[in-house]
Every structure is written in C-alpha cells, then in structure tokens.
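Page 47, continued from p. 46.
Same chain as before, 383 aa.
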Amino acid sequence: MKNMIDLKESRKNIDEIDRQIVALFEQRMRETNEVAKYKLETGKAVYDKMREDEKLEILGGLSSNAFNRRAVIELFSQIMSISRKYQYGFLPSSDWLSDFQKVERLPVTKTTKVCYFGMPGSNTQQAMEDFFGEDICGISCPTFQSVMEAVERGDADYGVLPIENSSTGGITANYDLLLNYSNSIIGQYVNRIDHCLLGLPGARTEDIKKVYSHPQGLLQCRVFLKEHPEMNPVECADTATGAKKVAADGDISQAAIAAERAAKEYGLQVIEDGIQQEKNNSTRFIMIGRNPVYLDDSDKLALCIELPHECGSLYRILSHFRFNDLNMTQIESRPIKGKTWEYRFFVDIEGNLEDPAVQNALRGIREEAKSIRILGNFKSFTK
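Result:
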C-alpha cells in the first residue's frame, strides 16, 4: 500500500512539474516572437547553427549525468526546432514560389505535341492517351533523355515518362534526369500494368525459348521467368520494341513481355496474360512541361532536397512536414555525383503551393537545407 501512495504522490509531483514546463515553454515562445520580429527587421537568418550548437553544449553541461546530458540536448534541439518553425511563419513568401504560374487548365489541342518513351504500343503511350486524350500528336522517343530534351528544346509541348513501379520501385534514371533539365512536372498518372507473353499467331508457351522486354518488364515478371527456365530473357529498349522485334523476326520460338495493346499494334497473339508477380502491378507516370505551371486543384508537390552531410539533418528536414501536418507520400534517395556516400532526396508531399502550411514548410526547408528545388505542383490521376 505504501508503494501505491508513493506512486500517486510522484505522479502528482510530475503533473505539477509538467504544468510549470508548459508555462515556461509559453514564456519562451513569447520571447521567440520578439526574436522573430528583430530578425525580420534586420534580415538576419532564422537558423543560426553555430549559435544553437553552442547553446546546446552549455545546456547539456548543466545536467547531472551522461544520460541526462544527452536527453537535455535532444529536448532543447526539439524546442529550438519548434521555435524556428514558428519564426518561419513571419517570413514573406519567397520569390522562388512566384516562378510557378497558376493556370485554369493545361492547354491541349489537336496540334499539341506530346513525346512519350518507347515505341507505339507501349504502356507509356497508353498513359499519355489516358491523360491527354487520343486527339493529340503523340511522338515516340527511344530514350528517357530524348523525351526530356525534346520538351526543353520546345520540340514538344509535353513529355511522358515512367517514374515508379509498385513492385520494383523507382526508375532512378528519371529521377536523375529531372535535375539535369529545367522541365517541371505538370501532372501524374497511375496506371495498372498487366504484362502479357506475346508471340506469333499459333505460338504456345512451350515453344518459347527467348523473351524480349524492357528490364523493368523482365523484373516485374521474374517469377514467371523463373518458372520457365527454358526461356532466355533478353533486354531491349522498351516493351513495345520487344513486341516489334518478335513480329519482324517471324520466329515462333521468340516472345515478348508487353501490354495487350502491343499485340494489336504488331499482329501478335497473347499466349498468356497477367504474368507479372504483383497482380495489382501499377506504374506511376509523370507528365513534364517546359513551363512551371500548376492547376488550382493541384494536390501533390515533388521536391528535390540536398542536405548537410551531418547527423540528424534528414530528421530535421522531415520534421517540417510533420509540424505543418503535411503528408509525405514518397521519398527516394539518389547519390550525389562526386560526393561519396552523400545523397539528395526526392520527396512527394500532398498539398498546393497556395496552402499556408506548404509555404511555411518550404520556407523552413529552404533555410535549413543546402538546396531545395520544386520539381512540380500537380494533380494526380489514377485509372
């Protein structure tokens, strides 16, 4: 019974201490308000890393043991982070946000030129037509880079590229290309992908000795290929190119892994359908444009963020999304050329550039990251 009384007394004391902590925290935030006004008037940066590191060292030294020292430093790191986020709310909207222009709709007519990766009959062509409609001028491009180049040169109004598959992950080459060109993401389309084994009319599964497809197609059907060791997988530029080759060669022992659309395009038959191991297999396609525009109902932002190469930097950056109640839907890391084991991060969050929460998060990240680039603000569609 003595222990129960002691527990109640301890909890009562802790409750009183917590009330004091809250009161002191609010007092601290009132002082933070004055600091924010001063920094705004003088143009002084909100984030002063040297000052914060020095203060954390002093505060840690006030603790009585090693465990408490670490805990005190972590506690005040969080308090300082909250204080910064509060101060960022006083900063004016940055000029870099004005680089993006809001439009009522994407201009699309019969003369609109849209480049897509792959040969006619590819999944990317299907995504293009589902997003822009069939009444456009679609242009086949042999590589991811050629799509990017055509849009940046102005040879095409828009481009379509695959960026991520639900079963095999991100298509890393296209993340890297997004940084090498000034194009912006103006839309996103998620399409279910059903891979088929396509062959010449009359071909059977047991006839097939060689299978052509894009590396992603082969990877997404690796279980099927493992079950048929007699089939030799051969990589090609895209799934539709494999189908075209099978039709051109006229060899009944050859097949392609591609969409049913490719079978119709090149006069092949579907030997087996739905051969991908992930039955809900989907690919996310991005629509790119030369100009940074966004629609009023855009609901997703794509960002590229480069961080200081130090402990806790990613945690601090991601905390801006949490603090502003922004849902992060995707993160992909890519190595920075010339910097061993250093990475930049491609992040998707839900929101619109006009949302105050988005603007506050972007202000904070811009202050604390080495660099940030808004890759696009767009609407996501799913078939």
